[in-house]
Amino acid sequence: MTMKIAQIAPLYEAVPPRLYGGTERVVAHLANALVDLGHEVTLFASADTCTRAELAPMRAQALRLDPAPLKSDLASHLHMLDELKRRAHEFDVLHFHVDLLHFPFFEDMAHRTLTTLHGRLDIADLPVVYRRWSRYPLVSISRHQRKPIPFANWLATVPHGLDESAYRFKPRSGGYLAFLGRISPEKRPDRAIEIARKAGLPLKIAAKVDAADANYFEQVIQPLLRGDPSIEFVGEIGDAEKSAFLGGARALLFPIDWPEPFGLVMIEAMACGTPVIGWRCGSVPEVIDDGTSGLIVDDIAQAVEAVHAIDRLDRRRVRDAFERRFSARAMAGAYVAQYRRLLGQDDGSAAASAAALCNELASA
User: Fold this and answer.
1) Whether the Cβ atoms of residue 24 and residue 34 lie closer than 8 Å to each other
2) What's the rounded Cα separation, in Å, for the pair 117 and 98?
3) How many angstroms separate the CA atoms of 297 and 80, rounded?
4) 150, 166, 206, 333 - which has most CB atoms within 10 Å?
5) Residue 65: its pLDDT value, please?
6) How far apart are CA 214 and CA 208, in angstroms?
7) Residue from 70, 51, 69, 71 nearest 59 by CA
8) Top CATH class, 4-163+327-363
9) In the chain, domain spans
10) In what order do the strands lie in the sheet containing 276-279?
11) In Å, what is the CA distance from 332 to each residue of 114, 229, 326?
12) Which ranges of the chain have pLDDT less than 50?
């Protein structure tokens, strides 16, 4: 049965983002996949969005790349929620991706909402909020993400997915190591540099530098780049450059030092056939099939060993793991099952199938 579904994205980035961005990229792929499955999808997002869904433009330009010197993210999001509240009767399900911002406004219809939490949850003040607004059904993007608030109203775990056609498989690498994401202490680009140097391989770093991390970049990372031509800082890249950047890498280095809720860049690399060398931290053991789509390590020495062993992994099997577990279609199918549970449109078998699918995706 066709459903009318509202997808509510943050307004910080276009959907999908022009450059760096995780949540909005996932929402883009989810909305398109739901349309492909035959559902009527309305996407509440900034006007510079590109989607096969019906777009409800809430802001002329996404916040981060808007050149206006003064802008209010709170005002723009409140405007969006007010417009959604006015139109809520048009939809069967309201699927939120804006953390908890909507909680005070949609309590009277919480039973037909779904909230995917995309960020870390080990933050002061969050437990009291999830106890106070406990009627909202929640989706986690990894089992590990749930740990700080296990009591919350969790409906399912649905791993992120991406459109397979957006990433080109490359059967052979160009021999370098890659780091893709954001320059920040918790992402540990310094570890990536150390690993590459000890392994004797070149490293390409394609990363965004937020204003909040400018000092870290200038004081910690830039000194490591000087005088070493084997370490190349590419800067921030968009989707058009990712297949070449990731597909050309011998491995993606993911040496994080924080409780990563998911790590979208890992499955982007897998989509190109590039295995991941990831720290045993946060969601990493749930995303990487150790020995198939990558290698999980605990320290620098193990990471260097993994670099030298990574060519033993079959890049075709890396891509296969992505297609099996992290395609946009698999993600959309898992969400459709949850929407039907909310609406009481299954006899119990759909719920059981949904739970089995989510468990398979999360633990395969």
Assistant:
1) no
2) 8
3) 43
4) 206
5) 86
6) 10
7) 71
8) alpha beta
9) 4-163+327-363, 167-324
10) 231-233, 203-208, 176-182, 249-254, 276-279, 294-297
11) 13, 43, 10
12) 349-351, 354, 358, 361-363
Handedness of CA 65, 70, 75, 80 (dihedral sign): negative
Tell me how long the chain is. Answer: 364
Chain centroid offset of residue 258 CA = 15
Q: 3-class secondary structure for the chain?
A: CCCEEEEECCCCCCCCCCCCCCHHHHHHHHHHHHHHCCCEEEEEECCCCCCCCEEEECCCCCCCCCCCCCCCHHHHHHHHHHHHHHHHHHCCEEEECCCCCCCCCCHHHHHHEEEECCCCCCCCCHHHHHHHCCCCCEEECCCHHHCCCCCCCEEEECCCCECHHHCCCCCCCCCEEEEEEECCCCCCHHHHHHHHHHHCCCEEEEEECCHHHHHHHHHHHHHHHCCCCCEEECCCCCHHHHHHHHHCEEEEEECCCCCCCCCHHHHHHHHCCCCEEEECCCCHHHHCCECCCEEEECCHHHHHHHHHHHHHCCHHHHHHHHHHHCEHHHHHHHHHHHHHHHHCCCCCHHHHHHHHHHHHHHHC
pTM exceeds 0.85 for this model: yes
Q: What local confidence, expressed as pLDDT, does residue 348 receive? A: 55
* pLDDT reported for residue 186: 95
CA 225 to chain centre: 28
Structural tokens at position 292 = 């198939």
Q: What is the pLDDT of residue 227?
A: 81
Measured CA to CA, the distance from residue 122 to residue 118 in angstroms comes to 13
Please give the pLDDT value at position 1.
Answer: 87
Instruction: Compute the distance between CA of residue 176 and CA of residue 246 in angstroms, rounded to an integer.
Output: 10
Within 10 Å of residue 171's Cβ, how many Cβ atoms? 10
Tokens of 106: 């949609």
Find how far residue 319's CA is from the centre of its chain.
18
Which pLDDT score is estimated for 361?
47
pLDDT on residue 88: 98
167-324: CATH class: alpha beta
Q: Do domains 4-163+327-363 and 167-324 have the same CATH topology?
A: yes
